[in-house]
Amino acid sequence: MAERNTSALAPNQVIFGDRRRRTSEADGAGDINPWELMRGIWARKEIVLMTFLAVFALGIFWLSTLVPTYTVETLLLIEPRIGEISRFDETNNLSTPDKGFVESEIQIISSYEQLNKLAEKLSLSTYPEFAQQKKTKDKTGVSKVSTVPSTPTKLVEKLRENLNIMRRGESRVISIQYTSKDPVLATKIANELATLYIQQQISERMTVHRQAIDWLSSQIESLRKRTTTSETAVESFRTKSGLFEANGATLPQRELSEVSTQLVLAEAAQSEATARLELAEDLIASPEGRDSAAEVLQSSLIQTLRAREVEIKAQISEMSTNLLPQHPRMVTAQANLRDLQSEIESEITKILQALENESQVAAARVASLHRNVNRLKRKLGLMNKEEVTLRAYEREAAANRTLLESFLTRYEEALARMQADTQAANARILSKAHTPLNPSFPRKTPMLILTILGAVSLSLMVAFVMEVFSSGFRTADQVERITGMPFLGLLPKARGNNPATAAAEVLHAPNGLMAESLRGLLGHILLAQVDGRPAKSLLVASSVPGEGKSPVAMGLARIMAMGGYQVLVIDADMRRPVQSYIAGIGNGPGLAELLSGRAEFMQTIRQDTASTVHVLQTGGELGNSTAALGSERMAWIMDTLGKRYDFIIVDSPAMSTAADGQVLARICDLTLLAVRWGVTDRKVVQRVLKTLSSGSGRRAGIMLTGVDMKRYRKRGAQTVLDPNLR
After folding, report:
1. β 647-651/567-571 pair status
2. Alpha-carbon span 698 to 525, nearest angstrom
3. Within 10 A of 683 (CB to CB), how many other CB atoms are there?
4. What is the pLDDT of residue 566?
């Protein structure tokens, strides 16, 4: 058939290589697309269901084998502590328990001694739950298991395994939880442990009070003796030293005080007497002032004498008017006046003598008092040294007396406290445990829900892991997103693994799925252009052997032949040739002979027995197939055959086993990479594509082979590409 003209392609049609979608343009980034992942999990719904049923059945079996256990709880409230007598705390001081104190009480409750008391009181060794299994042998040597009582250590360990004591948040509440197969036993253990703790507190408080009282009694007795001894020493020293006290002072101090007071008074009296004497002397010394002296004026005798003097002077004055001075009566009167004045002078002299005597007496008294004060000062100075010692004795006696009184007061308080604290403790039971009706484990409804959720999660996880760690390609989107190459179609899985059967299916069922898939591939090839001309050659390769490239090559050739194209299939797989087998032709000269010049075209090209496709088989062996296939002669062969045939399809060896495909890609217009659906590793495919791109500027496309269409459709994938991608 003549070469088809493709220059009149529609503007929206592009060449073969330009239909590739880049990785960044694909849905999602990287190798995992969320929607594709969900479709993959849905495609494995049978596995998900089977995994779910298996896990759910195991969960139900596990729940049925669980022994129910019961958990009870007793709450303890730690009260504020009152000051302890033994510590001499203030009786009204309430100490609020802090976090450290509450944690310490938890350790006391869970201590070995406390749990051992609990085990003894409840006789836990008699319960089967606490029994110890022991293997013994009878006389015949047969082993048997017998139950023996557990040791105290084993009992305590068993209690601790099922006992949980903790603080409720930041409060002063302690929770005692116990789990057991027997709900009644669990209740007894929790309540009895709380009761034992409170009884221990009461016992410890009573012990503390008794110890405090005993200690106070011994101290009081000792202080009494010390106080008596110190007070006796004070009185003995006071008697010996004469430091007797009266009204807060010693006798020498009081005597000195009194003598000092008398001295002050005596000095004042002396000063007064001296002043009076001096004043009287001054007044009497002058004729005008004799009568004005206070002592003279205060003397009744002088006043009487002065009155008689006045009377006599009045008589003399009266008689002088009638009598002469020599008159006897005048003489007598004058004589009486002189006698009276002499008597007044004598009396004044006596007064002065009395004042002088008084001044001398006052001076003598002052001198005497001065001597007494000096004597007392000397005596008091000597006694002050002894008073220091006396004060030391008194301080010791006072200290002993004060301490004795304090201890007596504390002793009375301790007695009262002990009587009041007989049934008091720093903790009380806030809530007792009650026998539960329903087990705490297992809670079947929540655990059944959890089992279902776990089964669902695990089954989905299995499907997820299988999908994520699946090494092959399963959808067109995966191919284009990961490789960046165009997806050209898929080839359904053929019956059996015979390549001849797969290639023959297009003839037996020309409208079947296999034929339609190859027609879709043909559409891509016919629309492809290379350097502005239609593509005339196609290299069909694979990453690894066994991916179905040979049936694709022959099937595609037969589909093209049905359309009237003259097609040549060149079997270039020198290591594993199968095209002669698929075409049903015998062995004979082929490509190897053409390349070596040992045969001509007419001798090597044969016709397919089932169609009009011509086949150029591999022929004999080549020493260096890679060099031969990449030679100028091979290019000449391709160019010559291209003028004779409408299309040439070259069957290449696997890219990972030989470099033949890389050199063949340089002389073929297009490259089709057959990839086994869900089997071929993605990294291998990417590495092969990188090899192809480095060896040729031609574009490559990918076709999935061996596709399980039922599973493919479960993923929601389409059997053909979106037309917009063409």
Report:
1. parallel
2. 13
3. 12
4. 92
Nearest Cα neighbor of 106 from 168, 186, 191, 192 is 168
- N residues, the chain: 726
Give Cβ neighbours of residue 646 (< 8 Å, ≥ 6 apart). 1, 2, 3, 4, 536, 560, 565, 566, 567
Distance of alpha carbon 453 from alpha carbon 503, whole angstroms: 48
Rounded Cα–Cα distance for residues 116 and 110 (Å): 10
Q: What is the DSSP letter of 69?
A: B
pLDDT at 86 over 70: no
The pLDDT value recorded for residue 289 is: 53
b/e 499-536 (16+ beta carbons within 10 angstroms → b): bbebbbbbbeeeeeebbbbbbbbbebbbbbbbeeebbb
Phi and psi, residue 571, nearest 5°: -90, 100
CA neighbours closer than 13 Å in the CB half-sphere of residue 595: 26
Helices marked H in 71-168 — which ranges?
A: 99-109, 112-122, 152-162
| Residue indicated by tokens 């999990």 | 41
Helix extents (H) in 485-570? 499-508, 513-527, 549-562
Lookup: tokens for 614: 């011509």
Supply 417's token pair.
């406290």
Instruction: Tell which residue, 511, 512, 514, 489, has the closest CA to residue 503.
Output: 514
Round to whole Å and give the CA distance between 3 and 5: 6
Task: Return d(Cα 81, Cα 102) in angstroms, integer.
Answer: 12
Q: Do 340 and 309 touch, CB atoms closer than 8 A?
A: yes
- Of 16, 487, 429, 479, nearest in space to 193 by CA: 429
Q: What is the pLDDT of residues 310-320, one digit of tens each?
A: 888 887 887 87
In 3D, which of 74, 70, 72, 73 has the Cα closest to residue 180?
A: 70
Give the pLDDT of residue 296. Answer: 61
Question: What pLDDT does residue 491 have?
Answer: 81
- Is residue 11 scored above 50 in pLDDT? no
Q: What is the pLDDT of residues 672-701, one digit of tens each?
A: 888 888 778 788 888 888 877 765 555 778
The pTM assigned to this predicted structure is 0.49
433's tokens:
């445990």
Q: Which residue has the higher pLDDT, 481 or 228?
A: 228
Q: What amino acid occupies position 52?
A: F
Integer CA distances (angstroms), 706 to 493, 545, 553, 585, 711, in order: 4, 13, 14, 25, 12
Give the chain's mean pLDDT.
Answer: 78
Q: Calculate helix-pair angle for 183-241, 112-122, nearest 10 degrees.
A: 120
Residue 666 backbone zone (phi > 0: left; psi -120 to 50: alpha; other: beta): alpha
- Two tokens at 660? 């033949």
Ranges 193-202, 379-388, 681-690: which has the least confidence: 379-388
* Residue 615: its H or E element: strand 614-616
SS3 state of residue 74: strand
How many CB atoms neighbour CB 613 within 10 A? 28
**Dihedral sign, Cα of residue 317, residue 320, residue 323, residue 328:** positive
Retrieve residue 189's tokens: 């253990």
Triad 433, 434, 435: Cα angle to 5°? 125
User: H helices then E strands: how many in the chain?
Assistant: 23, 20
Beta strands per DSSP E along 220-310: 245-246, 249-250
Place of tokens 């403790």: 425
